[in-house]
């Protein structure tokens, strides 16, 4: 690939108040390395610091409340201990010259009673079980049957998003990303396959987008437009996410988001962790035109495809997930056109440093902190 083709991908980009040294984003990646109580660890700080050369890091999905938890080993942002743990991470990344957002997450029905306070049922827009699995005690198990949220509880969850945003900024994050993708709670409200409510949060597309709108309004008011992004996955069926008309739904969703003006729209194009072309009828190009701030493309991008996408003006930023797992120096490898390390799927979730902070770099990592254990 020619140097000219990659120049734009490796060029500076202004995202709100942030100057990104390149347009390569580290996508949020669940790795299940948090300590008891969902507390981030020094090992996590080392992991993120190793990847600080990314234009932007979006830290892994992080539950906004105890009820938002759906997997073992995932971090939270609702206790003092969790905030202190994340301060280690943000300090390490900033010391290494990086920029980092936190992805805010409520799993909704993608959970298990053993992960919920007092072994209660997970919550969802409607009491419709998902055909999905979660990760508990080192193995995958079927999720539990949910119960439908009461109207007053919806307001409480919106407030939890706002508090999580405040906590994230207090912990030193440069901003937050609202996770509205992959079949989790906000996505469950959006889709008619998981939302059968008959109140103002269900039925029409306008009603089904109400919860997303209220969350985004609250988070933006707390942090400002320039510190808030949002992620969607229009055609992905992961976690049993289905809608009868995704084109109409997400056309309206993006129009709503465009009016709210978050700093970026992060779109999983295709099936999450799968093929990009699962629904050829869905027009991602048309979707991009509806959003007038930064468009971040994601899913299955190679260096060549990402460079072409940026050069064609089809995206402003490109997020990479899997490649960052095994290549902490991904930006440097792209710049030098060096081959990539292959990731070890057996170490994706849980464990320690192996398959987490021990992947080799092509040279010394420009910056690293902390402890491998």
From TrEMBL:
Keywords: Oxidoreductase. GO terms for cellular component: cytosol. This is N-ethylmaleimide reductase. CDD domains: OYE_like_FMN (cd02933). Signal peptide: none annotated. Residues 14-340 form the NADH:flavin oxidoreductase/NADH oxidase N-terminal domain. Belongs to the NADH:flavin oxidoreductase/NADH oxidase family. Its cofactor is FMN. It comes from the Bacteria. GO terms for molecular function: FMN binding; oxidoreductase activity, acting on the CH-CH group of donors, NAD or NADP as acceptor. Its EC number is 1.-.-.-. Gene3D superfamilies: Aldolase class I (3.20.20.70).
């Amino acid at each position: 690939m020619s140097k000219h083709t990659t120049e734009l991908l490796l060029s500076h980009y202004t995202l709100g108040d942030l100057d990104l040294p390149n347009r390569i984003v580290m996508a949020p990646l669940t790795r299940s390395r948090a300590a008891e109580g969902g507390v981030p660890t020094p090992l996590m700080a080392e992991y993120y610091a190793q990847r600080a050369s990314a234009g932007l890091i979006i830290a892994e999905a992080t539950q906004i409340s105890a009820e938002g938890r759906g997997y073992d080993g995932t971090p939270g942002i609702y206790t003092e201990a969790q905030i202190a743990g994340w301060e280690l991470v943000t300090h390490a990344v900033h010391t290494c010259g990086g920029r980092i957002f936190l992805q805010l997450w409520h799993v909704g029905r993608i959970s298990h009673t053993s992960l919920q306070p007092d072994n209660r049922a997970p919550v969802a827009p409607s009491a419709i079980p998902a055909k999905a699995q979660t990760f508990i005690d080192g193995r995958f198990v079927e999720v539990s049957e949910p119960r439908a949220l009461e109207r007053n509880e919806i307001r409480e969850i919106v407030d939890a998003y706002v508090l999580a945003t405040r906590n994230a900024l207090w912990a030193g994050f440069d901003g937050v990303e609202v996770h509205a993708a992959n079949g989790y709670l906000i996505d469950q409200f959006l889709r008619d396959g998981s939302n059968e409510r008959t109140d103002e949060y269900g039925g029409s597309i306008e009603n089904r987008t109400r919860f997303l709108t209220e969350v985004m309004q609250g988070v933006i008011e707390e942090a400002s437009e320039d510190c808030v992004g949002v992620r969607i996955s229009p055609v992905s069926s992961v976690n049993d996410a289905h809608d009868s008309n995704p084109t109409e739904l997400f056309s309206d969703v993006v129009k709503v988001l465009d009016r709210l003006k978050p700093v970026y729209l992060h779109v999983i194009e295709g099936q999450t962790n799968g093929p990009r072309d699962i629904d050829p009828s869905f027009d991602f190009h048309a979707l991009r035109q509806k959003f007038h701030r930064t468009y971040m493309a994601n899913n299955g991008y190679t260096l060549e495809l990402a460079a072409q996408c940026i050069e064609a003006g089809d995206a402003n930023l490109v997020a990479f997930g899997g490649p960052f797992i095994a290549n902490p120096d991904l930006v440097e490898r792209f710049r030098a056109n060096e081959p990539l390390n292959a990731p070890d799927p057996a170490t994706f979730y849980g464990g320690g440093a192996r398959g987490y902070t021990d992947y080799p770099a092509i040279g010394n990592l420009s910056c690293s902190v902390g402890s491998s254990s």
